[in-house]
Design a protein that fits this description.
It is a single chain. Helices cover 43% and strands 17% of the residues. It contains 15 helices and 13 strands. The chain starts with a helix and ends in a 10-residue tail after the last helix.
Length: 349
């Protein structure tokens, strides 16, 4: 119910507040600072109104973006669009939604400086915060209260983690690349992953509901304050946000790799993921085209681009080139649509 209310309010806001020619962007809290920075450069270079960027979480942003008669032009995402979301977009009239990969990010587990827990494996992480663990005759609620109960090599402090909610793409990615990978370290779940992928995902991806894992909404600043005020708690958010606040917190190493730029870029850090935004060409005009071109430019996402200073890990040269070609294709579609208004779809009217 809360998610539905939030989506309705966001649609109402976008429906009346921004000027008519403003590009409207919703979605991932991880992509938000990158998108906002691009919006500032776009406005300075083009003289157009600055895009209106709203932080709703990936899942919530996709629901707004894919809604019928949605006024939103761009959806930011910290995971790939789901088939169910593509189907919703298609049902609302969107045809051929375009995907743009902007680069890479890492999911970072953070701790206060005085926290003695400095390193984890994915197996330890799974056994600490999974809702249920395999036992001889099936599954049972996770009994662990201390990290030392998960592994005697870990400190004897309470298990307490704070992270993003189910609407967040960071949560989706964390479940997939951290919990599901860690779960495969146990024989029963490794077998389940091979025989029933749906059942495996349901088991491996369910987080504890007994207070050992706490959803903190889309506000990463709230997680920082909680972690700074606790010598035991751990937090979960994106590398870009950690990079901006690393003077306040320590990053926990995962499988022996610290959450550093180079380790994410070369694949040594296991919690790396791609970042995206999505555009419906039918809703795109010259303002949207200019925004997309700015976002995909080398000056933004290249190795020396201004988004690298914000914590973005650049994609390969070939990936960046492909993204710019896709952006040029979108601009061409927009130009054809403007020159031949009779070719506009019903979604444009």
């Amino acid at each position: 119910m809360k998610k539905a209310i939030a989506i309705v309010l966001a649609l109402a806001l976008f429906g009346c507040a921004p000027p008519e020619d403003a590009v409207r962007v919703v979605g991932s809290s991880t992509v938000f600072p990158f998108s906002r920075t691009v919006a500032e450069h776009y406005a300075a270079k083009t003289g157009y109104r600055a895009p209106v960027v709203e932080m709703t979480g990936t899942g919530g942003g996709m629901q707004i973006f894919c809604a019928a008669q949605s006024p939103v032009h761009v959806a930011n995402a910290s995971r790939p669009i789901k088939k169910s979301e593509i189907d919703i977009c298609a049902a609302a009239g969107a045809v051929g939604v375009l995907e743009f990969r902007i680069g890479y990010d890492g999911i970072v587990i953070v701790a206060a400086r005085e926290n003695p827990l400095k390193s984890l494996t994915l197996d330890q992480l799974y056994r600490a915060i999974a809702k249920d663990l395999p036992v001889a005759n099936g599954f049972a609620p996770n009994p662990h209260e201390l990290w030392s109960e998960v592994d005697p090599a870990l400190p004897a402090i309470p298990i307490q983690m704070h992270g993003p909610p189910p609407t967040s793409g960071t949560r989706d990615a964390f479940v997939e690349i951290a919990l599901e990978t860690g779960a495969k370290g146990t024989g029963a779940l490794r077998y389940l992953a091979q025989t029933d992928k749906g059942a495996f995902a349901a088991r491996a991806g369910a987080l504890r509901e007994d207070g050992r894992w706490v959803d903190e909404g889309e506000n990463d600043n709230a997680i920082i304050q909680i972690i700074r005020n606790s010598s035991n708690a751990l937090g979960v958010f994106g590398y870009s946000f950690y990079e901006q606040n690393r003077a306040l917190l320590d990053g926990v190493a995962v499988n022996g790799a610290a959450p550093e730029f180079e380790a994410i870029a070369d694949g040594r850090y296991p919690l790396a993921r791609s970042l995206y935004f999505y555009v419906d060409p039918a809703r795109a005009d010259e303002h949207v085209g200019a925004y997309v071109m700015e976002f995909m430019s080398e000056s933004a996402i290249g190795p020396y681009g201004y988004l690298i200073d914000k914590g973005l890990i650049p994609a390969s040269e070939s990936e960046r080139r492909a993204g710019r070609e896709r952006a040029r294709g979108l601009v061409t579609q927009i130009a054809v649509k403007v020159e031949n208004p009779e070719r506009r779809t019903a979604n444009d009217q």
